[in-house]
Amino acid sequence: MEGESNQKYSHHGGNFGSYFRQKQEKLALQDDNEYSKKSNIFANCKVYINGNTDPPAIILKKLIIENGGEICAFLGRKSSATHIMATHLTNQKIKDFANHRVVLPEWVTESVKLGVLQDWTKFRTIKIESCFNVPSDKVLVVPKQDPAALNMNIIDSPGTKGDKVRIEWILNHRLKINCLNKSFISDYFNQSRLHFMSTRKLQLRRKCRTYQPPLFPTQGSERTLIHVDYDSFFVSASLRSRPDLSDQPVCVSNGSSGSDIASANYKAREYGVSNGMWVGKAKQLCPNLICLPFDFTEYAKCSDILYDTLLALNPLRISAISLDEALVDISNMADEAETVSQEIRRSIKDQAGIDVSIGIGSNILLARLALKKAKPKGQCVLSPEQVGEFNIRDLPGVGRQVQQKLDKLGIEKVSDLKSVPLSKLNSAVGNALSRKLHEYAYGKDTDDIRTLDTPIKTVGIEIGWAIRLISNEEVAQFVFNCCEELFSRLNAVNAYCEMITVKQYRKMSDAPFVAPKHLGHGHCDIASKTKKVNNKLTFEELVEDVMFLIQQLNCPPLEFRGIGLHMQVKEVESEIESREEPARKPFQSRIKFSTTKLPPPVTPTKQVLPSILPKPPPPKKRFTVTQLFQDANDASYTSQASLNARILSELPSQTRRQILLNEDDYLPSLSAPSLPLVTTDFLGKTSLSELRKLLKKWIDSCAAPTSNDARRFFNFIRLSITEDTLWARAAKLVDWIKVLAKDKPEWLYYHSLLYEETQKQLLAKNKATKLF
DNA sequence: AGATGGCAGTAG
DNA sequence: CATCGCTACTGCCATCT
Ligand SMILES: Nc1ccn([C@H]2C[C@H](O)[C@@H](COP(=O)(O)OP(=O)(O)OP(=O)(O)O)O2)c(=O)n1
């Protein structure tokens, strides 16, 4: 795998890692037989010996191997070397070896002498004394209290003392958190609340889009909307296991001073603590503030409860605002909006144990403001005349900046908006927003709930934490890892890419090198570059384009603080709808669907006429909420016999996957179809390389796997991935398929299924290991 | 004059 | 010890074609 992927990306002209990868070690490895095992001091150590050493490499090698260690002949990008041995390093090598343990030969000789493995940090090659000519009492160890004492902010030209001090600072922090680690991105995302919320919202959006509402005669434009939201969501969820704290000021956060408060309870808010505030500041306002940790699994469960409950109502429309918040059109039960709301709140509270508030109104604005008024633990109906009393900050689209601008015009309350001429408003906050605000002042809102859940337009990733890089090579390596992440996201949605945007956080010139938040991005300039791309974007092209744009942005590695990679996309579904593409997906076309003419294109964002869809679930009767829960999991429409490609593509991916993996076998393309499935082997092959060869033959032989083959291998992977001894091999095989599947959409899709499944299983096993 | 790229701002 | 500052969207403006 290593070899192939190197070849594969070699046309990037050594942009990244080539220095390591291509380098052939001079040290000749002779036969290993002449060594006699003496101890296990260096068990699990793999040492790469760099250049001339004292004592010479041949001696060190003998010592290491005889005492249970291994020698690496190469230093690859994903090399398994645990230590690099060197007596002397050039400045370039100091950078290149930044994220390695670089040790002096004495580490080996001392360890052998004392019979115990010595702490490598006591034998660093990269030390201030030897490399930077800076007095040793000044640096290396990060001071506990005052990082600024490190004097990171020396302003000088690159390559001088200040840079070296900064590099040293970075190297030290790397030992704990290293953004170049293969698993960094997935590790980070697994801990990031904002990432969790964003991805969760995406899923919910999809869920809401595929929801099929009941038929209901629309009576004019009169609507009844409810805005449903958990009260102080994260902290309420976390407090369920700590009821003893419920009357204390409590928040959910990661660490101490510079850590974001995700959610503060109402008690804490009395002190002025708010969501998004740093813990340090909050503690000043409220010294007794208690911090609880995140529990994403629980948040996901509660989120599901909320959405399942609302969907079980059979509303006319549901729109995902966030994981804890939804906007629901219940015009079909308008008369009972209040009692329905009571029921929803009681039911969710029963299931999740968290208070829910609901705002009821005839448009989106009124529902939102009603919710604001209802909180906490309440519900409220709002009419247009009542909006005047709210603060302008409560209005959608009014954040900190707009609030400041309006403040200068003397506008504080929504009612104040009426007295300011539109032209004045216009020049302060722009054309679109001023019109909107003017409407809001009268409780009007022309936005339609149906336009909220539109098809996705961009897919992107951003990382703005722990990015500390010291060379262009490292920048390239990190960006490459980001590309992998982005590409897998593109594969996860059914879309093709039209444009790529690279966004870069660059430390402002007057900002301190050490950011106020630990490993935060600090005060940054943000620049971006965009490039149009070929529709059928391959991974290599993506990397190439992104590298090109990064190069254009031309940020010194030491100032690189964050990155965003975004793709402007078109969802593929709409393409299938508008043009009948009979065999676009062999996978899908093999499904025996009825030959009846496809209905005209229907997108969920337009008025949907359920009657033309294949047997939607029958409109359910007015509910008692508990009754409806039993129906909530009803998947009757997925079992309909008459499927066609378009409808298939609109199904929730879970369902769709089920169908794909259950459809009849087609042509067996593997020669030995009847071998039994055993977890440890697949068609008799157990070793990684044998399995890779098998996969290569298989994938090269056809454009798409047959369903039977697909299912068998899928099961093989699925079973392996939960085994402690097998999961790493399975993960590598999935990775391998991605490489082989290049330019084969069916295989790429198959890969995405495998990927999804393995990720899920790994996460479930708490082996949050990044696969790719 | 419309299209496009870069950027700010907002929400949760 | 620290800390996990994401991501999709809209709209404005300057500059282009
Ligand atoms: N800056 C923010 C804002 C919100 N959230 C998370 C935590 C919240 O619990 C959740 C929902 O956000 P809300 O704005 O709905 O706030 P709460 O639910 O915490 O409180 P409220 O009762 O005001 O809705 O999103 C976050 O992590 N960081």
TrEMBL record:
Stored Gene3D superfamilies: 3.30.70.270, 3.40.1170.60, 5' to 3' exonuclease, C-terminal subdomain, 6.10.250.1490, BRCT domain, DNA polymerase, Y-family, little finger domain, DNA repair protein Rev1, C-terminal domain
Domain BRCT: start-end pairs: 37-125
Pfam family, one: IMS_HHH_1
UniProt superkingdom: Eukaryota
The keyword Transferase belongs to this UniProt entry's keyword annotation: yes
Annotated UmuC domain residues: 225-399
GO BP term (any one): error-prone translesion synthesis
Keyword tags: DNA synthesis, Transferase
Protein name: Deoxycytidyl transferase
Annotated source species: Starmerella bacillaris
